[in-house]
Amino acid sequence: xxxxxxxxxVLFADALGSKPAPVRVCEHELVxxxxxxxxxxxxxxxxxCPHRGMRLSEGRVEGGRLVxxxxxxSFAPDGxxxxxxxxxxxxxxxxxxxxxxxxxxxxxxxxxxxxxxxIDVSGYHLIGKTRxxxxxxxxxxxxxxxxxxxxxEVHALLGYPRERMAEVTCEVTSTDTxxxxxxxxxxxxxxxxxxxxxxxEPGDTFVDDWTxxxxxxxxxxxxxxxxxATRQRRPNALxxxxxxxxxxAERTDIFALSYALVAPWxxxxxxxxxxLLTRAFVVMELRRDVTLLGKLADKRxxxxxxxxxxxxxxxxxxxxxxxxxYRGRG
Length: 330
Known about the structure:
GO molecular function: 2 iron, 2 sulfur cluster binding; iron ion binding; oxidoreductase activity
CATH architecture of the largest domain: Alpha-Beta Complex
Organism: Polyangium fumosum
Helix content: 10-25%
Mean pLDDT: 92
Radius of gyration: 22 Å
Order of helices and strands: EEEEEEEEEEEHHEEHEEEEHH
Structural class: alpha+beta
Number of domains: 2
InterPro entries: ARHD_Rieske_2Fe_2S, Cholesterol_7-desaturase, Rieske_2Fe-2S, Rieske_2Fe-2S_sf, VanA_C_cat
Pfam family, one: Rieske
Protein name: Iron-sulfur cluster-binding protein, Rieske family
C-alpha cells in the first residue's frame, strides 16, 4: 500500500513504556517497542512472528530485543531475528522506519524517501494533544474538517452563527500538493467569561485559515480574531495541527496537537488557567465532530450525485490529492 510510504503518527510517545504496544494503520497490524530508554532505540515490526504466526505484541522486551512468547525467537528493531533452538537460523521480521517527534511515535515503510511533515509551531506553546477515532473513511473524515458550514450546528464555541452564515467568506486556493481555505465571518456568541479569557470582544470577526497537506494527510489550522471596525488582530490565537490516519477502510484515527500564543498578561498568572480551558474546549469540539461522523447515514467517499454548497469546493480538490499524492495513483 502506497499509504505506508508516508510518515504516520500512530501512538503518543508517553503511551509506550517497557511493554510492546500493538497499533493498526492502513489495514496493517504493527507492534512498537523500546529496545532501551533512548528515543533512538525504537522498533516497529509487523505484529506477527515469521515462525508460526504469533502476535509479537504479546511478547516482552529483553536485552533490547522483542521476544516472541511462543517459541522464544527474538527480534531487534531492524527485524533481525534469532532462534534459541537453532542458532544458525537467520529469521527476519518485517521492520518499519520509526521516530519519536512532537510527543508522538511515527512510522513509515522502511526506506521510503518521503520527508517528515513540516510543522512550524515556533512562538506557540503546546496546550494539549488528543486522539480520537472516527467511524468513517479517511475522505469522509477529512470532509468534516475542511468545511465550516457545519460549525453553527455541530460546534459549541469555535465557528459562526447559523443566521449569519451568508456573511461568511470562503476563499479556496490550491497547489499541486496542498489545499488552503480561509474563512472569515462573525464569531458565534460565547459565554461571557470566555471573552475575557480569550481576550476577544462580542462582535469580533473569527478567521479560520487552514492548509491541508497530503504526505501524510494533515491540516494546520490558524484561528484568530480581529476587531471588524479596525481589523486589528486580538492578541490570542490558536494553531491546531490535525493528522488523519486510516486505521481501516472504514475507520480513521485523528491525532490533534493544539497550540496557543503566549498572551501579554502571562505575568499575571492567568495563562495556565486559560490554557487548560482552551485545551478543554478544543477537545470538546473534536469530540463533537467525531460523534457526528459516527451518525452519518451514508459514509461512501463518492461525491458524485451529492448536492454540494459553496463551502464544499475543497472536498473534490482534497480527493484528487489523496489519490495522486497519498495513494500514489496517477
